[in-house]
Design a protein that fits this description.
Strands 1-2-3 form a three-stranded antiparallel beta sheet, with no helix packed on it. The protein has 105 residues and is an alpha+beta fold. It contains three helices and three strands. The radius of gyration is 20 Å and the shape is elongated. It folds into two domains: 13-56, no CATH class; 67-103, no CATH class.
Protein backbone atom coordinates (compact mmCIF):
# COMPACT_ATOMS: atom_id res chain seq x y z
CA UNK A 1 0.00 0.00 0.00
CA UNK A 2 1.39 3.35 -1.05
CA UNK A 3 0.30 6.71 0.26
CA UNK A 4 0.65 8.63 -3.01
CA UNK A 5 0.68 8.27 -6.80
CA UNK A 6 4.11 7.70 -8.38
CA UNK A 7 5.56 6.81 -4.97
CA UNK A 8 7.94 4.14 -6.31
CA UNK A 9 8.21 5.22 -9.94
CA UNK A 10 11.36 6.76 -11.36
CA UNK A 11 10.26 9.83 -13.28
CA UNK A 12 11.02 13.44 -14.00
CA UNK A 13 9.74 16.22 -11.78
CA UNK A 14 7.93 17.76 -14.78
CA UNK A 15 5.96 14.52 -15.27
CA UNK A 16 5.04 14.46 -11.59
CA UNK A 17 3.85 18.07 -11.66
CA UNK A 18 1.93 17.57 -14.89
CA UNK A 19 0.17 14.48 -13.53
CA UNK A 20 -0.75 16.24 -10.29
CA UNK A 21 -2.10 19.22 -12.26
CA UNK A 22 -4.25 16.95 -14.43
CA UNK A 23 -5.57 15.12 -11.37
CA UNK A 24 -6.44 18.41 -9.67
CA UNK A 25 -8.00 20.07 -12.75
CA UNK A 26 -10.21 17.05 -13.43
CA UNK A 27 -11.22 16.70 -9.79
CA UNK A 28 -9.95 13.12 -9.63
CA UNK A 29 -9.85 11.57 -6.17
CA UNK A 30 -6.72 9.66 -5.15
CA UNK A 31 -7.02 6.98 -2.48
CA UNK A 32 -3.71 6.04 -0.88
CA UNK A 33 -2.86 3.56 1.87
CA UNK A 34 -5.68 1.29 0.72
CA UNK A 35 -5.80 -2.38 -0.25
CA UNK A 36 -7.89 -3.69 -3.14
CA UNK A 37 -9.90 -6.60 -1.77
CA UNK A 38 -12.10 -7.54 -4.72
CA UNK A 39 -12.25 -6.87 -8.46
CA UNK A 40 -15.57 -7.27 -10.29
CA UNK A 41 -16.71 -6.47 -13.83
CA UNK A 42 -18.30 -3.26 -12.46
CA UNK A 43 -15.54 -1.97 -10.20
CA UNK A 44 -13.42 -2.71 -7.17
CA UNK A 45 -13.74 -3.02 -3.43
CA UNK A 46 -10.97 -1.72 -1.22
CA UNK A 47 -10.18 -1.53 2.47
CA UNK A 48 -8.95 1.68 4.05
CA UNK A 49 -8.71 2.51 7.74
CA UNK A 50 -10.61 -0.65 8.63
CA UNK A 51 -13.60 0.15 6.41
CA UNK A 52 -14.64 -1.48 3.15
CA UNK A 53 -15.39 0.82 0.19
CA UNK A 54 -16.78 0.17 -3.29
CA UNK A 55 -15.60 2.10 -6.33
CA UNK A 56 -17.56 1.73 -9.57
CA UNK A 57 -15.39 1.93 -12.68
CA UNK A 58 -16.36 2.68 -16.25
CA UNK A 59 -13.77 1.66 -18.83
CA UNK A 60 -14.48 3.58 -22.03
CA UNK A 61 -11.26 2.59 -23.82
CA UNK A 62 -9.49 4.30 -26.65
CA UNK A 63 -7.97 3.36 -29.97
CA UNK A 64 -5.73 4.85 -32.60
CA UNK A 65 -7.04 7.31 -35.16
CA UNK A 66 -5.28 6.34 -38.39
CA UNK A 67 -7.04 8.78 -40.74
CA UNK A 68 -3.91 10.87 -41.35
CA UNK A 69 -1.87 7.78 -42.21
CA UNK A 70 -4.49 6.65 -44.73
CA UNK A 71 -4.77 10.16 -46.21
CA UNK A 72 -1.00 10.42 -46.75
CA UNK A 73 -0.50 6.85 -48.00
CA UNK A 74 1.12 6.96 -51.42
CA UNK A 75 1.51 10.77 -51.37
CA UNK A 76 4.87 10.90 -49.61
CA UNK A 77 8.11 9.16 -50.54
CA UNK A 78 8.80 8.33 -46.89
CA UNK A 79 6.06 7.92 -44.32
CA UNK A 80 6.66 6.71 -40.79
CA UNK A 81 3.84 6.33 -38.31
CA UNK A 82 4.78 7.16 -34.71
CA UNK A 83 3.06 7.71 -31.38
CA UNK A 84 -0.61 7.05 -30.77
CA UNK A 85 -1.29 7.03 -34.51
CA UNK A 86 0.22 3.52 -34.50
CA UNK A 87 -1.17 2.27 -31.18
CA UNK A 88 -2.08 4.07 -27.91
CA UNK A 89 0.74 3.89 -25.33
CA UNK A 90 3.16 5.94 -23.24
CA UNK A 91 4.29 9.35 -24.51
CA UNK A 92 7.95 8.48 -23.93
CA UNK A 93 7.63 5.73 -26.55
CA UNK A 94 6.33 8.25 -29.07
CA UNK A 95 9.21 10.63 -28.30
CA UNK A 96 11.74 7.84 -28.89
CA UNK A 97 10.01 6.84 -32.12
CA UNK A 98 10.11 10.43 -33.37
CA UNK A 99 13.79 10.77 -32.47
CA UNK A 100 14.78 7.56 -34.26
CA UNK A 101 12.63 8.41 -37.28
CA UNK A 102 14.41 11.75 -37.74
CA UNK A 103 17.81 10.22 -36.97
CA UNK A 104 17.65 7.75 -39.86
CA UNK A 105 16.21 10.15 -42.46
Amino acid sequence: MLEDVLAISEHYLNNDQALRTIIKERNIGVVGNAKVTKITPNGISYAKDGQEHILHIIAAGYRSNNQLEYALDGKAEYLTVIGNEEVPRKILTAVHEGYHTIRVM
